[in-house]
Specification:
The protein is of the alpha/beta class. The chain has a single domain (about 30-255), classed as Rossmann fold (3-Layer(aba) Sandwich), CATH 3.40.50. The chain has helices spanning about 5-10, 10-15, 20-30, 40-50, 85-95, 115-120, 130-145, 170, 185, 190-210, 245-255, and strands at about 30-35, 55-60, 100-105, 125, 150-155, 155-165, 220-225, 230-235. It has an 8-stranded mixed β-sheet with strand order 3-2-1-4-5-6-7-8, sandwiched between helices. Helix 4 (about 40-50) runs parallel beside helix 5 (about 85-95) and helix 4 (about 40-50) crosses helix 10 (about 190-210). The radius of gyration is 18 Å and the shape is globular. Mean pLDDT is about 95; it is low at about 255-263.
């Protein structure tokens, strides 16, 4: 895969970076990333992935931009209010990097359509704000052997983790918490979306290029008020209904896809 002169200049800082270089940039250009949720986390993540030269980005979101989004969803402008988020975001990303193919998909991802959307991607980012969608994304990523970068924010705290087979997101969150809060109800500091969304993009780039050590089987938690970060290990649940040993054995038997399983 060759780069044009414009691409060589555009990605110059990556090309001289030892951990990325030409091979890593080629992997980025060949990659198809699916971003579920074009909101507080999907907006900054998509901007950095497009700028990084990911070859194809699919954005999935059912909503229109509204005035309350502009406090943290920096991809949108007042003129985008009332416009489908995926359409407005696609226009912005294409203007940022015309070498990237953007696929806007205006719909709500659920268990019925998740497989169709996720099967064609190389990697998935989930920045949605409801657990039903998160569970659907996670289950489909496990079933199709796709790496998942998951992020979440609320108030002043954010988290990001990478899931590849086992443990999966449901090992971390087995059921919808009874006290689950939304940003609309409790608030969120706008800049936190940029911090965690950028971390999600960074983890995605690491997974695609093979640079460094991704947050596989770990959860990074950032406390914006205290300016503290900690990382915790996520244990695999052998009885997990999504990635448990009995489930992965059945999936492996029914597909030729090779799964990467982490103890």
């Amino acid at each position: 895969m060759e780069f044009s002169d414009a691409e060589v200049e555009r990605y110059a800082r990556h090309l001289v970076l030892r951990e990325v270089g030409g091979p890593g940039q080629q992997r980025l250009k060949a990659a198809h990333v699916l971003i579920v949720g074009a909101g507080g986390l999907g907006a900054p993540a998509s901007l950095y992935l497009a700028a990084a030269g990911v070859g194809q980005i699919t954005l999935v979101d059912p909503d229109e931009a509204d005035l309350s989004n502009l406090q943290r969803q920096v991809i949108y402008r007042p003129s985008d209010i009332g416009t489908a988020k995926v359409e407005a975001a696609a226009a912005e990303l294409s203007a940022l990097n015309p070498h990237v193919k953007i696929n806007p998909v205006r719909l709500a991802l659920d268990s019925a359509n998740a497989g169709t959307l996720i099967a064609g991607a190389d990697l998935v980012l989930d920045g949605t704000d409801d657990f039903a969608t998160r569970f659907a994304v996670n289950a489909s990523c496990v079933a199709h052997g796709k790496p998942l970068v998951s992020g979440a924010i609320g108030r002043w705290t954010g988290q990001v983790g990478v899931f590849k087979g086992q443990p999966c997101y449901k090992c971390l969150v087995p059921a919808i918490p009874p006290d689950a809060e939304t940003c609309a109800a409790v608030g969120v500091i706008g800049a936190l979306a940029g911090v965690i969304g950028s971390m999600m993009a960074l983890e995605a780039i690491k997974v695609i290029t093979g640079a460094g050590e991704a947050l596989e089987g770990r959860l990074l938690i950032y406390d914006g008020l205290a300016a503290e970060t900690r990382t915790v290990r996520i244990g695999a649940d052998p009885e997990c209904s999504v990635c448990g040993d009995h489930v992965l054995t059945r999936i492996k038997a029914s597909t030729s896809r090779r799964y990467i399983v982490h103890d």
